[in-house]
Amino acid sequence: MLHGFINLNKALSWTSHDCVARVRRLLNTKKVGHGGTLDPLASGVLPIAIGRATRLLPYLPSSKAYRAVIRFGVTTTTDDLEGDVITQKPAAHLSRQHVEAVLSQFVGTIEQRPPMYSAIQVDGKRLYDLARKGKTAEVPMRQVTIRQLISRSWTAGEQPELTLDVDCGPGTYIRSLARDLGETLGTGATLAELCRTHSNGFDLARSLTLEALETAIEAGTFEPVAAGDVMNHLDAIALPPSLALRWRMGQKLALRDVLPTNLNLADKLTAFNGEPDTYPLRILSADTRTFLGIGEIREGFKPKPANPDPANPDPANPKPANSKPANPTEELLPTGKILAPKRVFLAVD
Q1: How confident is the model at residue 140 (pLDDT cuts 50, 70, 90)?
Q2: Strands (E), 230-331
Q3: pLDDT tens readout for residues 2-52
Q4: By C-alpha distance, which of 40, 91, 242, 24 is closest to 6?
Q5: Are 223 and 48 spatial neighbours (Cβ–Cβ below 8 Å)?
Q6: What is the per-residue DSSP string for 2-53?
């Protein structure tokens, strides 16, 4: 069975789920997942994980980039051309300079209201399910980060269009950006086209279409992107063979036993706050540099020794037959920081 990633170039009209289902059939495996959903009317990079790499999806880099075409003078129910038109009016007076003058308002950490047609849940219901039933709900605002907006081209007309490059963080809706840009300019706007050019460490220039993937599989030349290469953005801890074997078996290691061979991390770990998931690490084999999985550093604990029983102070003698069992909620004592397995990629068979 193959284990790794596919840098897939999703075609228009395909859902992300469609792509996962197609990859499952092509590779004859059930263990397939994707990172970052793309709408059917969007194309571009869709990271696909296969085999044990599905365990690593939460640890992919979070950055994303898009090329969007925004049409002014039109608003729709979905904030893109898939929805019904709500308003349509001439916006020929709008110029590229007018639009570019307000782009800075949308750069940085901003508040954004997701589209009503989105997968966000409100009171346990998906917004798109409510919208399809004609129901409305208060869509919660969310904080997103847009690092850069670059104006690429302008098409004049009754409903002019701006081609815009967007560099952003996770959770950003480009449909919402188009809608909000139109509201700011007073013309209304909707998303006309969208292509994701970068996602989770994968670039469009190196992506593979489903057709090209099928051809490579039939020719026996397909090789997934190695999981270790995709996790290169994480700091690494290299374990000598004896410790690596224990870690792959799911055992926790005392950090003091690990740091002597990873002194470059010592300063970073001094400031570590001990909360799970805040500092994931790439775990490697020290001798082969093989990727073993994802580890986390946290505080270790052990049960506090029980106080001597006043009725039976001699621990060498058995307790009376009517003695109470140990407290299942016994107090724990810290033992110092440990390196614990979070996602073991190369487990011991």
Answers
A1: confident
A2: 236-239, 253-254, 281-285, 291-303
A3: 999 999 999 999 999 999 999 999 999 999 999 988 988 899 999 999 999
A4: 24
A5: no
A6: --EEEEEEEPTT--HHHHHHHHHHHHT-S-EEESS---TTEEEEEEEEEGGG
Structure tokens at 153: 């081209």
Tokens 């407290």 belong to which residue?
Answer: 327
Those residues with Cβ within 8 angstroms of residue 256's Cβ, 6 or more apart along the chain or in another chain: 336
Across residues 158-186, what is the average pLDDT?
A: 96
What are the tokens at 144?
Answer: 């997103």
Nearest to residue 47, comparing CAs of 193, 235, 58?
58
User: Is 39 marked active-site?
Assistant: yes
Cβ 139 vs Cβ 106: under 8 Å: no
- 39, 80, 167, 180: which one is catalytic? 39
Q: Which residues contact 91 (CB under 8 A, 6 or more apart)?
A: 72, 73, 158, 159, 160, 187, 188
Contact of 295 with 237, CB cutoff 8 Å: yes
Contacts of 99 (CB under 8 A, 6+ apart): 72, 151, 154, 162, 181, 185
Q: What is the pLDDT of residues 310-348, one digit of tens each?
A: 555 555 555 444 444 455 556 777 677 889 999 999 998
Measured in whole angstroms, the distance separating CA 117 from the mean position of its chain's CA atoms is 21
> How many whole angstroms separate alpha carbon 199 and alpha carbon 167?
10
Per-residue burial over 221-234, b if 16 or more Cβ lie within 10 Å, else e, is ebebbebbebbeeb
Beta bridge partners of 149: 166
- Token look-up 């346990």 returns 124
CB atoms within 10 A of CB 288: 11
The answer, yes or no, to whether residue 227 has pLDDT greater than 80, is yes
82 and 175 Cβ atoms separated by less than 8 Å: no
Element at 102 (helix H, strand E):
helix 96-102
